[in-house]
Amino acid sequence: MVFPRRAKKPKNGDASAADLQTADQLKGALMPYAPAAQKAEFVTLSAAQKGVKAYYASRLERMNLRQLGPRIKKAELAEAEAKDKAKLGA
User: Is residue 68 part of a domain?
Assistant: First the structure.
């Protein structure tokens, strides 16, 4: 049942006045909410874990992925030039 925002001017699809009269108001917990809470587990960090710079590593990997295409193209051009030099030298 869709209740109209303004009872004096209902829109299409809103419940009629007769439907609104027969509607029951339910009280109490209709759908009890039970959050699935998990306790936080605290772990002591090892020296190796403390030495990792996570932000730096993630930015470096992002830059490497972004530069992968141009680096492949540069390597292909260098290979093509080496083949051309080999043909001219032979």
Answer: yes
